């Protein structure tokens, strides 16, 4: 290319995209060039930076203004920005601002170039002097100020507040809320006749979108500054902010993001990430920690978990941020409420009591035992949330279950945190429900003699109800897979009990039926009176065949009906439920006890429900252990009326 165009010193030239961006082509972005893009040969970023560095120091106001316009436009490109910053261009711009000699469009384009250069995140915001901050703040505090200058000044102050804790306090000392309110009231006006928005004191109209963006930016800036100055005066609040930034960095690996991109983009990213972290206040999460207890203790616990159990922390945050909104477990809110709960359980902050004899040796096995205790419990909370398939509306219910899990594990007085964690693994949500049910049934009232007698009286009625259900189910019938010595084939047979419970009808089918099969279509019959026994499992003749015992699942579903001398009707149930129904039903027909797990479960459920219904009217009434005594016989029966 150099030979064809006879250009010497090729390093002084570069290619630029010939569109509104005017970005330089580099090795990093050359793959982003789209087919059909027009490229322009121009001076290199370094040469352009050198030229503009000289031009913005011109003694001619017109030449200086044109140079500043070109600088503001060129500074959007990071390649040029790097070269200009290497020439100490940021220092030159700050000196021009601090001198106070420029005003109007000169000052506006100077600040615009400064904002564009700083948005690349190359230079730290901590490098600026107090004089520069005071000068920028003075533009905001003035009641009459060019709108463009005001907008750029607010953007600079906002970036200082967002990116530097030292600059934040300095900005807070310079800006007064009273000076911001008039700007908000008079920044925009609607020009109804032209159906456009015009900025007050601006010589040229701007379109609706630009005006709206300007208005939103300024409103957000005012609110942010007011919120920071009203609630962040305590140095401890800045510590909260630093920890929250660290939590965000660890969770989303955003080491270099705080100083990159535009201000609006960063604010949007912060809000999005704080929502993923589960904070209630997505704009300023520090507000979530104002409640005492737990206050900063919750934030310290979260930071410890993020640093010392990083994999578990990242997994919990990302796992919940990728779920549907209604099923996500908010890590921030959960951590705050969990810390508060742990303080209540361990009576943190309360004075020692001589009457308390609780001692937990596990807290003496680790230097940071409370933080480790929190780490175990926050993982338990997330696990329980998933087991309960909870939504945000179930938050308090989940916390109650977690509290019960922790209390039950602590009752066993584990000697170490590992033992405590192991105990929690055995206390799943399902196990807690079983324990609750068992405890309700084992309460004093349920173990009293009258209650036990009532249970014994009700139990035969419940068993008869279960028996009728099993027989009705046998009358509906079930489709079974055909047993074959060859490889598995899709052949079926159907079996059902007659309505009078005296005959089993069965027969082969070509395909699996969609509904009940009528009795008439089943060719074979087996009278119930001929059935001698019901055989299950490995004792079934069709399970004694070679290779059959290798299939444990089939073994658990196999049963046979023995009739006549040595004749069998062999079954393999489609699932465990059907196996229990048929074995229970056949035993009931033979007058034998129904012993399946399904029957035991049904008995417990139905008996519990019936007991609760019958005792409903006796709630809060003391049930006596023994019936009242029978009075003595009277001395005579003269009070009896004689009808004869």
UniProtKB/TrEMBL annotation:
<dbReference type="Pfam" id="PF04727">
    <property type="entry name" value="ELMO_CED12"/>
</dbReference>
<dbReference type="InterPro" id="IPR011993">
    <property type="entry name" value="PH-like_dom_sf"/>
</dbReference>
<keyword id="KW-0053">Apoptosis</keyword>
<keyword id="KW-0581">Phagocytosis</keyword>
<dbReference type="GO" id="GO:0032045">
    <property type="term" value="C:guanyl-nucleotide exchange factor complex"/>
</dbReference>
<dbReference type="InterPro" id="IPR024574">
    <property type="entry name" value="ELMO_ARM"/>
</dbReference>
<dbReference type="InterPro" id="IPR006816">
    <property type="entry name" value="ELMO_dom"/>
</dbReference>
<dbReference type="GO" id="GO:0006909">
    <property type="term" value="P:phagocytosis"/>
</dbReference>
<keyword id="KW-0729">SH3-binding</keyword>
<dbReference type="GO" id="GO:0048870">
    <property type="term" value="P:cell motility"/>
</dbReference>
<dbReference type="InterPro" id="IPR011989">
    <property type="entry name" value="ARM-like"/>
</dbReference>
<comment type="function">
    <text>Involved in cytoskeletal rearrangements required for phagocytosis of apoptotic cells and cell motility. Acts in association with DOCK1 and CRK. Was initially proposed to be required in complex with DOCK1 to activate Rac Rho small GTPases. May enhance the guanine nucleotide exchange factor (GEF) activity of DOCK1.</text>
</comment>
<dbReference type="GO" id="GO:0007015">
    <property type="term" value="P:actin filament organization"/>
</dbReference>
<dbReference type="GO" id="GO:0006915">
    <property type="term" value="P:apoptotic process"/>
</dbReference>
<dbReference type="GO" id="GO:0005886">
    <property type="term" value="C:plasma membrane"/>
</dbReference>
<dbReference type="InterPro" id="IPR001849">
    <property type="entry name" value="PH_domain"/>
</dbReference>
<protein>
    <submittedName>
        <fullName>Engulfment and cell motility 1 (ced-12 homolog, C. elegans)</fullName>
    </submittedName>
</protein>
<dbReference type="InterPro" id="IPR016024">
    <property type="entry name" value="ARM-type_fold"/>
</dbReference>
<dbReference type="Pfam" id="PF11841">
    <property type="entry name" value="ELMO_ARM"/>
</dbReference>
<dbReference type="Pfam" id="PF16457">
    <property type="entry name" value="PH_12"/>
</dbReference>
<dbReference type="GO" id="GO:0017124">
    <property type="term" value="F:SH3 domain binding"/>
</dbReference>
<dbReference type="InterPro" id="IPR050868">
    <property type="entry name" value="ELMO_domain-containing"/>
</dbReference>
<feature type="domain" description="ELMO">
    <location>
        <begin position="239"/>
        <end position="410"/>
    </location>
</feature>
């Amino acid at each position: 290319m150099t030979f064809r165009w006879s250009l010497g010193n090729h390093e002084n030239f570069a290619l630029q995209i010939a569109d509104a961006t005017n970005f330089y082509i580099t090795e990093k972005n050359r793959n982003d060039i789209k087919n059909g893009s027009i490229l322009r040969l121009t001076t290199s970023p370094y040469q352009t930076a050198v030229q503009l560095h000289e031009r913005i120091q011109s003694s001619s106001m017109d030449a200086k203004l044109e140079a500043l316009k070109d600088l503001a436009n060129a500074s959007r490109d990071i390649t040029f920005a790097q070269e200009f910053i290497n020439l100490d261009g940021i220092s030159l711009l700050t000196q021009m601002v601090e001198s106070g000699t420029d005003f109007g469009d000169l000052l506006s384009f100077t600040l615009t170039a400064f904002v564009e250069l700083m948005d690349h995140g190359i230079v730290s915001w901590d490098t600026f002097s107090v004089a520069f901050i005071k000068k920028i703040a003075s533009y905001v505090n003035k009641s009459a100020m060019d709108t463009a200058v005001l907008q750029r000044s607010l953007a600079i102050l906002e970036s200082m507040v967002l990116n530097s804790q030292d600059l934040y306090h300095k900005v807070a000392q310079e800006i007064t809320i009273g000076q911001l309110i008039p700007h908000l009231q008079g920044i925009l006006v609607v020009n109804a006749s032209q159906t456009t928005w015009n900025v007050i004191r601006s010589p040229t109209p701007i379109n609706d979108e630009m005006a709206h963006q300007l208005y939103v930016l300024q409103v957000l800036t005012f609110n942010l500054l007011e919120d920071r100055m009203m609630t962040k005066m305590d140095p401890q609040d800045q510590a909260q902010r630093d920890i929250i930034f660290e939590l965000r960095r660890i969770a989303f690996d955003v080491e270099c993001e705080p100083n990159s991109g535009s201000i609006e983009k960063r604010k949007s990213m912060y809000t999005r990430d704080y929502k993923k972290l589960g904070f209630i206040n997505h704009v300023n999460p520090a507000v979530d920690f104002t409640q005492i207890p737990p206050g900063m203790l919750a934030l310290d616990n979260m930071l410890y978990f993020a640093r010392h159990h990083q994999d578990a922390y990242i997994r919990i945050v990302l796992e919940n941020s990728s779920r549907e909104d209604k099923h996500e477990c908010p890590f921030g809110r959960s951590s705050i409420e969990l810390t508060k709960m742990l303080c209540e359980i361990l009576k943190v902050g309360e004075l020692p009591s001589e009457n308390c004899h609780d001692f937990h040796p596990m807290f003496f096995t680790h230097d940071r035992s409370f933080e480790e205790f929190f780490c175990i419990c926050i993982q338990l909370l997330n696990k329980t949330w998933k087991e309960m398939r909870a939504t945000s509306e179930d938050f308090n219910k989940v916390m109650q279950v977690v509290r019960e899990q922790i209390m039950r594990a602590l009752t066993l007085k584990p000697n170490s945190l590992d033992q405590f964690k192991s105990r929690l693994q055995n206390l799943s949500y399902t196990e807690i429900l079983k324990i609750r049910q068992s405890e309700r049934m084992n309460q004093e009232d349920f173990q009293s003699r009258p209650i036990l007698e009532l249970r014994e009286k009700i139990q035969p009625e419940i068993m008869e109800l279960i028996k009728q259900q099993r027989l009705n189910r046998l009358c509906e019938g079930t489709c079974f897979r055909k047993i074959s010595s060859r490889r598995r084939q899709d052949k079926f047979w159907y079996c059902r009990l007659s309505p009078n419970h005296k005959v089993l009808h069965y027969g082969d089918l070509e395909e699996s039926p969609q509904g009940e099969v009528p009795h008439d279509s089943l060719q074979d019959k087996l009278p119930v009176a001929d059935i001698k026994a019901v055989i299950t499992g490995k004792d079934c003749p069709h399970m004694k065949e070679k290779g059959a015992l290798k299939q444990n699942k089939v073994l658990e579903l196999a049963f046979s009906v023995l009739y006549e001398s040595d004749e069998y009707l062999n079954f393999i149930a489609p699932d465990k439920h059907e196996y229990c129904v048929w074995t229970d039903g056949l035993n009931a027909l033979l007058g034998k006890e129904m012993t399946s797990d399904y029957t035991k479960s049904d008995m417990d459920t139905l008996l519990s429900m019936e007991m609760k219904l019958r005792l409903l009217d006796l709630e809060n009434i003391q049930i006596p252990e023994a019936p009242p005594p029978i009075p003595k016989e009277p001395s005579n029966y003269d009070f009896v009326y004689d009808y004869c």
